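INFO  loader      accepted 1 record
INFO  loader      residues=131
INFO  predictor   begin
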Amino acid sequence: MTAYVRLPLVDKRSRPVAELSARPKAAMQRWLPQVQALAQVMVNRQLLVTMVLLAALVSSALAVVYANHLNRSLFIELQTLQAQRDAYQIEWSQLLLEQSAWSALSRIEKLAASDLALKVPDPQDVVIVKK
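INFO  predictor   done
INFO  writer      dumping tokens
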């Protein structure tokens, strides 16, 4: 069996709490302004911390909105530039086809024969010149 010993409750000045309860109004009137001032300081400090955190939250939210807007704008510009690049590649391939068609040897021979009345020389008419 365990025996418990009750110790009287004492305040900081080693007076029993029973004495304080005998004069509750006097003790309360003495400590109440200090407690109220401390509570006011704590409320002011909590309000300040809350306002700082709220400002950080709002600025963070605005930064996220701005980053998303910038991301979308840059993505739209990227899509536009890629479409323009594709159009240039198509035009370049068409120009290469046109160049090969215009410079085909059969076309040049046909134009030379019809427009300029040129013909391929006979082998006995060819003269080789050496240096």
